[in-house]
Amino acid sequence: MDVPCVRVRPSEGEAIRRELADADLIAEEFEITVSDGWLYVPVARPEAVPPGLEVVDYDAPERETQTTPADILGFEPSYERLGEVALLDEDDPERAAEIARAIVDSDLPLETVLNKRSKIKGETRVREWAVLVDGSADGRPTETVHREYGCEFALDLAEVYFSPRLATERHRVAAQVAAGERALDMFAGVGPFVIPFAKRGAECVGVDVNERAIEYLRENARRNGVEDGVTAICGDVRTVAAEYSGWADRLVMNLPHSADAFLETAVTLAGASCVLHYYDIQHEDDPFGPGERAIRAAAEPEYEVSVETRRTVRSYAPHELNVCLDVRLERRE
Predict the structure, then answer these.
(1) Phi-psi sector, 159: left (phi>0), alpha (psi -120 to 50), beta
(2) Residue 98: φ, ψ to 5°
């Protein structure tokens, strides 16, 4: 059957396969195939494939030995995978339980299944989860280790915010980082921006109000061998800004809905030349305008403001888009 596949030359195949596996993008239920001088790697989420890789539809054979949840259910269930945990978003408890049983009875390496019980809420942006199947060895079903693009992130979904859907976006930003940069993530969480930045040789500071997120950030710095390049601070970034005034070559502001309230702090943190990655959620009629105007209002005339990238990250809700502005701030003499 036709499935989305990354098409590459066989000489590049192993490197690309590893990159896709690190991002948890390979569709394990289909075979990787070579045909007519091309290697076809089936992918589970084509929209998350890194830019620059070609995605085509290809008649990839199914793995004969693997039973999928769809084989058991008779329909294709919707779920996300985070480490060894499957995440559902089902309103019907009976349907959720049926899907959970099929996932653990399949040949997928998923033994724990959670279902969303609430929206993201509170200052720490966490949500409640219903444990449908607990396959954890230590009785902590919401804790897992997620891998993306060569990095490992330990986290507990019941205590911290984390979205696997943003892996490609994080990789896009990390690819811009150069060794020796000074980068500060104003809402760092468990370190999905900070850790890959540090692995590229940047000196990094991660700030977050969630004490548990900061504990995981420190653990993840050790786990990825970059603890010497990462400073983790628990607190409101507005209270930290004075200590790092004029310090940053790069700032990450991934706090959609609220980032504009922290732009004065971002200007305080920015060095003479600084790239700001500003995330926002706005109506599709003008997704970039409000953020751009807010940045200019906060930074001008002290800085010359130039927008380098206007990027739609994903659809957030009907008629609402999650977007990113990559903005360069150059201090005027």
Answers:
(1) alpha
(2) -65, -45
CA distance 162 to 190: 8
Give me Rg for the CA atoms of the chain: 21
Residue the block writes with tokens 């996932």: 103
Q: Does residue 1 have a pLDDT over 80?
A: no
pLDDT score for 269: 98
Cβ-based neighbour number of residue 270 at 10 Å: 26
DSSP 157-211: TTTS---GGGHHHHHHHHTT--TT-EEEETT-TT-TTHHHHHHTT-EEEEEES-H
Distance CA 98, CA 72 (A): 10
212, 201, 209: which is closest to 155 by C-alpha? Answer: 212
Other CB atoms within 10 Å distance of the CB of residue 244: 20
For 49-106, what is each residue's pLDDT tens digit?
988 899 999 999 987 767 889 999 999 999 999 989 999 999 999 999 999 999 999 9
What is the phi-psi region of residue 133: left when phi exceeds 0, alpha when psi lies from -120 to 50, beta otherwise? beta
Residue with tokens 């399949």: 106
Q: Name residue 38's beta-bridge partners.
A: 35
Can you give the pLDDT at residue 67?
85
Task: List CB contacts of 91: < 8 A, sequence separation 6 or more.
Answer: none
Predicted model pTM: 0.81
pLDDT per residue as tens digits for the range 157-195: 999 999 988 999 999 999 999 999 999 999 999 999 999
